[in-house]
Design a protein that fits this description.
The complex is a heterodimer of chains A (472) and B (226). With 472 residues, chain A is an alpha/beta fold. Chain A has two domains: 259 residues, NagB/RpiA/CoA transferase-like (Rossmann fold, 3-Layer(aba) Sandwich), CATH 3.40.50.10420; 72 residues, no CATH class. Chain A is built from 23 helices and twelve strands. In chain A, helix 3 crosses helix 12 and helix 16 crosses helix 19. The termini of chain A are far apart. Helices cover 31% and strands 23% of the residues of chain B. The longest helix of chain B has 16 residues. Chain B is α/β, with parallel strands linked by helices and 226 residues long. Classes of the chains: A alpha/beta (472), B alpha/beta (226). At the A-B interface, helix 2, helix 3, helix 4, strand 1 and helix 8 of A face helix 1, helix 2, helix 6, strand 9 and strand 10 of B.
Chain lengths: 472, 226
């Protein structure tokens, strides 16, 4: 998809005025956030498990080349194929070739963020192959030709009325008189429609939550079971995944799985966690004849050992966006590409460039909630700060903003001057504020257009502190 | 670009960023050691259970996730249990199953009313029956392994999935379950597909409201034997 990350400001403004979106986003606190808190409270070792999960990934990343080689060796031993893809182009070409060689007409898909990243659906469509998303959320947004707005709940921005309207528009072979009021009815209809697609598909494409070097296994985590039908029915199974997903052993996978679902949906474990090793074996009555893994780099290797290294620990649980006040207000589409929220604000500029996505790291209040809930303890605010520093160094910061900062720095480096200035300005401002607030203020329109700015309440903190000390 | 070149280019980029070479003896040894040791990381205290305690925890967790669970004393009682379950839920008295030895040896003729089909799953199956090799009590998780004994499609295509597990196969943690599977599959290799199943299929993709039976079974019933 064509990114619109450069337009974050106007995207966000539009989102703030979108009523259905506000209703849809309102459910996150009652759902994901409350459920995660409960899951965490029910597992006394949760914080220690976060440390262990981080340690697993750190060890793996430090030896990434060797674990990838070990993983590949096992995949080949068990009859599978590994395709190394340095770029999105390489990955798309590899997938298209497998589909063409198989004479594929329709391809079913499990949910894959890497698939979104390389825009595989558009690529297949251009080649005359029909991709069908089978995760319910992904199916809903495919009908609307929209990107996902959340990494684990891609259609979280939609209300059931919108889904009903889309189903009536698309499933025209069904009776217009049918009742589609409750989520159960909508799910049931999608189940019936997609069941036919599963059975007819030539190729199934899934992502992978983890790869295991010990056994050459790919792991998918789902609640619907769509990923499993995608991979066990067609003749060919393609796994599209990226290099940082590998872990050494089954035991290491256990550690990450113990924090994944709890952080994501607040479930202790997802309904289906599937470990897949190679194609159909002798005697098997089902399973694919061919098993392919497309291993994507697309800028990840460059992050190793650098400022954004820690981001490679991300397991795509979505906890950072669920707890982010900015995401909670504007939703995922405002971020303008595939990965939204705090993890997207850090990752997107590395993948599509700071020119397109340089604004995203500014979409933060630096409240730190994302880091406090990240199961892999990724210092997201610190990395957003790295991007801001780069933006400043590149001269992308607006001139007025820079002048203001310079002025502030001049004063802040001279404490006596600073205190005298703030001592003068603070009571002045407090007198002008109506009922202790400003409804508008020059140069602060970005704030006061949407809410009042509190006025200072008289003396400065420093002044009050000194008074308190002398009273003692 | 040819396969070998693409591989070298990608691995070369990884090594360049890490500042390493592929033949550093200390690194190679560290990786070989970890892959061989397969050492467990932290296992939560609640997962360190076995025997009756593991069965109790397994049952509680599964029920909490929307499955139903019943207990029998020996596999011979399965036909009777199955027939009763199908009757109570207004389901047809027929099901499909694989060639699992435990399920094949059952005296099915004692429940004459049941029709048994065998083979891989069909799109139209209402009820299927599988056996789980092992289970982890910590999250009520069944470990179903692929093969002609228990074809994978039986786990996902039906409306109602019924799974039999022997009481002695229920362990505490995922680590326990892997060790069982590593031992059982030492000769023929690690199974092609292992489905860790912890309840019926569900989705919350419409307004975060949980609905059962998204694509997989709407109902999961587990029979513990022994």
């Amino acid at each position: 998809m064509k990114p619109t990350s450069h337009a974050f400001k106007s995207n966000a403004k539009e989102a703030l005025g979108n009523e259905p979106l506000r209703r849809a986003l309102g459910g996150i606190k009652r759902g994901f956030v409350a459920n995660r808190a409960r899951a965490r409270a029910n597992l006394p070792e949760f914080e220690d498990l976060r440390d262990e999960a981080k340690a697993v990934k750190e060890h793996t990343l430090a030896h990434l080349d060797l674990y990838l080689e070990a993983y590949e060796k096992k995949v080949v031993e068990t009859g599978g194929h590994v395709h190394w893809a340095s770029s999105a182009d390489d990955a798309r070409a590899a997938i298209l070739k497998i589909c063409r060689d198989a004479g594929a007409k329709t391809v079913t898909k499990g949910k894959s963020m890497v698939g979104e990243e390389i825009a595989i659906n558009e690529h297949l469509e251009q080649a005359g192959i029909t991709p069908v998303e089978t995760d319910l959320g992904e199916y809903l947004i495919q009908l609307r030709h929209e990107p996902p707005s959340h990494i684990i709940a891609p259609a979280i921005h939609l209300t059931k009325d919108q889904v009903e309207a889309d189903f009536r528009k698309t499933h025209t072979e069904l009776s217009p008189e049918r009742v589609l009021e409750e989520p159960e009815q909508l799910v049931s209809e999608a189940r019936a429609i997609l069941r036919e697609k599963f059975l007819a598909a030539d190729v199934g494409i899934t992502g992978a939550n983890l790869l295991i070097a010990e056994t050459g296994t790919s792991v998918i985590v789902t609640n619907e079971g769509n990923g499993d039908l995608t991979q066990c029915l067609p003749r060919i199974h393609i796994v599209i995944t990226s290099i940082e997903k590998v872990v050494p052993t089954l035991e290491d996978a256990d550690t990450i799985l113990r924090v994944l679902a709890r952080s994501a949906t607040g479930q202790e474990f997802s309904t289906y966690t599937t470990f897949t090793t190679g194609p159909k074996r002798e005697g098997d009555l089902d399973g694919p004849d061919e098993y392919h893994v497309v291993l994507l780099d697309n800028g990840r290797s460059e992050m190793l050992g650098g400022e954004f290294h820690d981001m490679l620990r991300c397991i795509r649980c979505g906890a950072c966006m669920n707890h982010c006040p900015v995401y909670g207000a504007v939703g995922g589409h405002a971020y303008g590409w595939v990965y939204p929220g705090p993890m997207g604000a850090v990752l997107t500029p590395t993948l599509i460039g700071v020119g397109e996505a340089g604004h995203l790291p500014n979409a933060s209040t630096f409240c730190g909630r994302c880091e406090s809930v990240c199961p892999m303890r990724i210092p997201l605010p610190k990395m957003m700060r790295h991007w801001r520093e780069r933006e400043y160094e590149n001269g992308d910061t607006p001139a007025l903003y820079k002048a203001g900062l310079k002025l502030w720095a001049f004063a802040a480096k001279r404490p006596a001057l600073y205190h005298r200035l703030t001592g003068l300005v603070s009571p002045l401002l407090s007198r002008f504020g109506r009922k202790g607030r400003f409804a508008s203020m020059p140069l602060a329109g970005g704030w006061t257009d949407h809410r009042d700015l509190p006025a200072p309440q008289g003396k400065t903190f420093q002044q009050r502190w000194r008074e308190r000390e002398t009273r003692r | 670009m040819s396969g070998a070149n693409a591989r070298e280019r990608l691995l070369g980029a990884v090594r360049k960023s890490l500042g390493v070479t592929g033949d550093d003896a200390a690194r190679t040894a560290a990786v070989a050691e970890r892959l061989k040791a397969r050492a467990p990381n932290l296992i939560p205290a609640m997962a360190k259970v076995s025997g009756a305690k593991a069965i109790k925890l397994f049952t509680e967790k599964l029920k909490g996730q929307g499955a139903s669970v019943s207990r029998i004393t020996k596999p011979d009682e399965i036909p009777e249990q199955l027939a009763a379950y199908l009757r109570d839920n207004n389901l047809p008295a027929e099901f499909r199953t694989g060639s699992d030895a435990l399920l094949a040896e059952i005296p099915w003729d004692t429940a004459a009313s049941l029709t048994r089909h065998t083979g891989a799953g069909h799109g139209g199956d209402a009820v299927t029956l599988s056996r789980a090799e092992t289970a982890a009590a910590e999250t009520g998780t069944l470990f179903l392994t692929s093969g002609p004994e228990n074809p994978t499609t039986l786990n996902f295509l039906p409306d109602t999935h019924i799974v039999v597990i022997r009481a002695e196969d229920i362990h505490g943690s995922y680590e326990d379950a892997w060790n069982v599977l590593r031992k059982t599959h030492e000769k023929q290799g690690f199974p092609r597909t292992i489905n860790l199943v912890s309840g019926p299929s569900r989705t919350a993709d419409i307004e975060q409201i949980i609905v059962m039976g998204a694509h997989g079974p709407r109902r999961l019933h587990v029979i513990i034997a022994g």
